[in-house]
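Internal tracking record. Fields below are filled automatically when a chain is submitted to the structure queue. Please do not edit lines marked as system-generated. If the sequence contains nonstandard residues, flag them in the REMARKS field before resubmitting.
Queue: standard
Priority: normal
Entity type: single polypeptide chain
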Amino acid sequence: MKKILVLGAGLVAKPLVKYLINEDDFEVTVATRTVRKAEQLVENSSNGKAVQLDVNNTKELRRLIKKSDITISLLPYTFHAKVAKICIEFGRHMVTTSYISDEMQALDEDAKKAEILILNEIGVDPGIDHMSAMRIIDRVENQGGKVASFKSYCGGLPAPEANDNPFGYKFSWSPKGVLKAGKNEAKYLKDGQIIEIDGEELFQHYWPLEFEDAPAKFETYPNRNSLPYIDTYCLEDVDTMFRGTIRNRGWCDALNCIVKLGLLDDNKQEDLSKMTYNQLLRTQVNAGKNESTRDAVDTYLGESSNKAALDKLEWLGLFEEKQLPNENTLIDVMTALFLEKMSYQENERDMIVLFHDFLVEFPDKKQRITSTLIEYGLPNGDSAMARTVSLPAAIATRLILRNEIQEKGVHAPVIPEIYNPVLNELEKMGIVCKEKEQDF
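SYSTEM-GENERATED OUTPUT FOLLOWS
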């Protein structure tokens, strides 16, 4: 029996554990700090185990990895390299859904020497986006064409019927992760020119996004650094390379205000819990004694302010005399507030939207190729976010253990030996990227 170690039992873990635990020849151990969460995932299955683990307990972590054939890390990305080094030491495969960090990439040769695969970026974004893109890119090149422009957009949002708050957003994964990403620097290639955006100005750079079969009108803004994907996808001659995040319209203006107000600051502060949201805001903008908080915020924000954005801040509760939660950083205060106001309720569905837009050139024609994935969560069941993040990782884990994927080293799923079988199985599960071609 093959032994699988799953580290972490967060919001996206359930479909992965359910998929793997249903294989008769797999034994799945879920290790997490709060063992009750792991117990809920394995549900007394005969080939499932739940154990308590503090990942900082290196001795216990090493013991669990050594006795397993493969480790799936659903921990925060900062722990992945630590786990990978132990996997290399004991010759155990590893799977993560996170981006390949520089520290992880540096382990490539060691992983090859240990004859193991460390497969990263096998979720939805990154993950399904890579695999569906590479399937198109490889097909185009095999037909003698080349990609001139590639734009990719992805977002996790409430389904249209659950889109009932002014921000147009609800949390299907780490709220703090969403807010921290709001200060990421960004870089992309447009018509041969490199565009760089400072993290503090991220939400000032957004555009409307509409496409065929889209369930709504969206907006998009740059997702981190798109330039490395020129090499990842082997598109040295591409003129445009853009990866964007999808949100419902109005999100970027509101988040830009929140950033400018300094509310995503992660420096520790004392006595925050003694303040109200209104007092915090007045302090941030140095409001005058007789000045209303909303007017003071409007003046402070200047050109970044507009009525719709201020209305969103008011709905959020930032002008209320309500005590701040017991947190010691402003980003943690905002995380608690966003989660309170933007959580999914019973029977509500989330939605994953992934859209690729290629311009390709063949010797005798030019063509636009699009690929669209729209996946909805199951009411009172698994979210679309959980399914699209964790099922690719689960499928890849099964393929690795069955020796159907035999690559070694540190990889993303951008080669046919990985992306074809994973995408094929996802399609059997109803997770399908629909492609369309148009000559011009």
